[in-house]
Design goal:
The chain is α/β, with parallel strands linked by helices and 470 residues long. It has one domain: Alkaline Phosphatase, subunit A. It has 14 helices and 13 strands. Strands 1, 2, 3, 4, 5, 6, 7, 8 and 9 form a nine-stranded mixed sheet that branches. A four-stranded antiparallel sheet has the order 10-11-12-13, covered by helices on one side. A hairpin with a 3-residue loop joins β11 and β12.
Length: 470
Amino acid sequence: MDKQKKNILLIICDQLSAQALPAWGNSFAKTPNINSIVESGVRFNNTFTTCPLCQPARASFWTGLYPHQTGVMSNGRQHYVPNLSETIPTLGETFAAGGYKTVHFGKQHDAGSLRGFDLAPITEREIKNVSAVFPINYDSREDLNTSEQTIKFLNNYSDKAPYFTVADMNNPHDICNWIGKFQHNNKLVKTDCELPPLPKNLYRDDKDFKKLPLPIQYICCAHTRQAQIAEWDEEKIRYYLLAYHHYLTRVDDEIGKILTAVRQRYDKNNTLIVLMADHGDSMCGRWMATKHTSFYDETVRVPFVFSGPEIYGKNRSVKGLVSLLDLFPTLCDYAGIKSNIQTEGKSLMPWLAYKSTDFPHKFVVSQWHTEWGFTIEPGRMIRTEKYKYTHYLEENGEELYNLVTDPGELKNLADNPDYESVLKEHRNFLENYVSATKDPYFNLEWNAEKRWRKHKPGYRNHRGTAAPQQ
């Protein structure tokens, strides 16, 4: 193998919020294998996805472009999603052209943005003795196959070319199946296991709901899963979190098997390991489940960890703002691949090599359009060091949070005169971003049926239907 080039193992988890992990302050999580990556490398504490939804986020980080630039703005169904244009370069193509063996195992959901990788078939493995407390879906069964295929590759690969291997895991996404199993009046299957504590930001004063953008006031109407949690009590909230941590532990176990295979290779010291997620999970903050429409930190802030040769320091954290757009230029820079490809990201190598302590970005952006097309709620997030600003097209709804005094994002300050200058500054950031990236945001249209705007504000006041999942 070319000693000048390092192998790269990229491990991706689906729906993994940064705050679900011990390194981000979660004392309940049991993730020894993910912890080992964190403890041996550098983590970017404030990394944000470009969209809290699978397919748009993935097409974005595989290309280094925003969803409006890739054209992949939803998960499909009623909302048309084009396959990624052949004119847009991908990370897989770039590394294949740079002399790497590029191979991908596991979840795809990429709208063609995995072009350039050899894609392994997705199959399921049988899981025996499944607990009724934690039912499983294809997510967990596919993860077993993903780890097996990745390990087989690592055990057998001996070509001269360095490898760029992706282990693309589903979990903890199986929480979406769990909430479906126990929706409405279905009784929980209980356990003697210790239950996680309730989130500190579980409750939001009903009077504050009228200050929120309508897509957030009525997020319970936007998806059946959000409507389901509206009727829960605190015990069900804690069981949701218990299940989420269970599926997280499942994927951590599979990651451990893959790490063992890497560490048994002759070139283990010549391999960069990267851990990340496409987006997070609401984790019941503000009485929300899974992810949909909102830009709260639980859903948009994700783990982003680098461990391996030429990465300076162990268990080191970088607090500056980072976007998953930075994956593409960072890996190219690390691998010494020279490219004229234009991305919206920035190489993080100066921070990984500890040659810079400045913030990588003054602000980062996330987008929302729709999941399946049943409600269309275009929105944008501007995240700065101390503040978060969101804007939704429906009635020009805005949020502004002081993340220093209100890390739980419970008090919307958009109408507070004391923050008028901060609000104006962040509006300007949004306008500058829209202009710089040619985002058609302000020309888009929203669409939400009137029946989903009728009940008294407050998720627990939900009545009637919600946007159908299918």
